[in-house]
Specification:
single chain, 281 residues, alpha+beta, globular
Length: 281
C-alpha cells in the first residue's frame, strides 16, 4: 500500500520526525547534496535528468533535519543515500519503506547494513562498485557479427533471457509486466543496450541505466547458461562501453560480485572504488 508523504514545514531545517517529497524546484539542492559521491549517487542524478521529480515512475524523499537521508523510488526499486556516516532517520525511512510495494532496496553497503535490523528476514547482498573513465578504457579486439544494438522493442526478449539467469530471475518471473514497462521506459529515456542472438534467441545482453550528461551505470550483464564460456559477455560489454564513450560520456560504473565477471571488467579498465549493497524483497 502506498503512503502519502507528510509534507514538512517551510524553511531550511525540518523536524527529524518528518519527511518531504521533493519536487523539480529542489533539484539544484539535490545535485549539491550528492556532488561529493557522484558514482554512489549516479542513480539519483541519472533518474532526475531523465524523468525530473514530478513523474509517476521517479520520486525522491528527504528525511530528517538538513536532509539526513534521501530516498529515491524508481518503479518499485528504492535507493537510499546520506551524507552522514550514521544517519538519525533510519527508523523513519524504514517505517516508510515498510508501507511501500518494494522489490529492492540498495545503498552503499555500510549504510544498508544499518537498515538491516529493520528488515531482519532479508539478506544484504554486497557487491563491488567499479568505475571506468573514458581515458582508461582498454578496448578489446573481440567482435561478433551477431551483436545487435537493442531498443525498447526488444523488452520481451530481454525479460525472457533474465528469467533464465538465477540471480535475476525472481522479479522477472513474478513481476513481468512491471519489468517490461521498466525496460521500455529505460530505453526510451536514452539508455544504451547490446545483445547477441543465437538461433533467433537473445542469449547475452548488457545495458545502461541512470544515464546522465556525464556518466551511466552498466547493468544487467547476463549470458544464458547454455551459451556461457564463449566470450559473449566480454564482447557485449566492450561494445556497450565503446558506444557510450563515443556518445560523449566521461565515465561508466557497474557492480559485480562474481570474480569471473570482475576479471572481464578489469581487463576493460574498470577499477574498484567501493562496496554496494542490495536487499531483495
Amino acid at each position: 500500500m502506498a503512503v502519502n508523504p507528510v509534507e514538512m514545514g517551510k524553511g531550511p531545517s525540518y523536524s527529524a520526525h518528518m519527511y518531504k517529497k521533493l519536487s523539480n524546484q529542489d533539484i539544484p539542492a539535490v545535485f549539491r547534496y550528492i556532488a561529493n559521491e557522484k558514482e554512489m549517487n549516479l542513480f539519483i542524478e541519472g533518474d532526475i535528468e531523465a524523468y525530473g521529480l514530478e513523474s509517476e515512475h521517479v520520486e525522491l524523499y528527504a528525511f530528517g533535519d538538513d536532509w539526513d537521508c534521501l530516498l529515491l523510488r524508481y518503479f518499485s526499486n528504492f535507493m537510499v543515500t546520506s551524507n552522514k556516516e550514521y544517519p538519525a532517520s533510519l527508523q523513519l525511512v524504514s517505517e516508510f519503506l515498510g508501507q511501500q510495494p518494494m522489490q529492492r532496496l540498495s545503498a552503499k553497503e555500510q549504510l544498508l547494513q544499518q537498515f538491516h535490523p529493520y528488515f531482519p528476514n532479508t539478506k544484504v547482498q554486497g557487491t563491488y562498485l567499479c568505475r571506468l573513465d573514458r581515458s582508461g578504457f582498454k578496448q578489446t579486439g573481440k567482435t561478433d557479427s551477431n551483436v545487435v544494438k537493442l531498443d525498447a522493442s526488444f523488452a520481451q526478449e530481454i525479460v525472457d533471457l533474465y528469467k533464465h539467469i538465477e540471480e535475476f530471475a525472481q522479479p522477472y518471473l513474478e513481476h513481468e509486466a512491471e519489468k517490461l514497462s521498466e525496460i521500455r521506459n529505460t530505453y526510451e529515456k536514452g539508455c544504451q543496450g547490446y545483445g547477441i542472438f543465437a538461433d533467433g534467441t537473445l542469449v547475452c545482453t548488457a545495458s545502461t541505466t541512470a544515464n546522465s550528461s556525464s556518466g551511466a551505470m552498466v547493468i544487467g550483464v547476463a549470458t544464458h547458461p547454455s551459451y556461457r564460456k564463449r566470450g559473449y559477455a566480454s564482447v557485449v560489454v566492450n561494445q556497450l562501453c565503446k558506444a557510450c564513450f563515443s556518445d560523449g560520456l566521461s565515465f561508466l560504473c557497474l557492480f559485480y560480485d562474481n570474480p569471473v565477471a570482475g576479471a572481464i571488467y578489469h581487463r576493460l579498465g574498470f577499477e574498484t572504488i567501493g562496496r554496494w549493497g542490495m536487499m531483495k524483497f
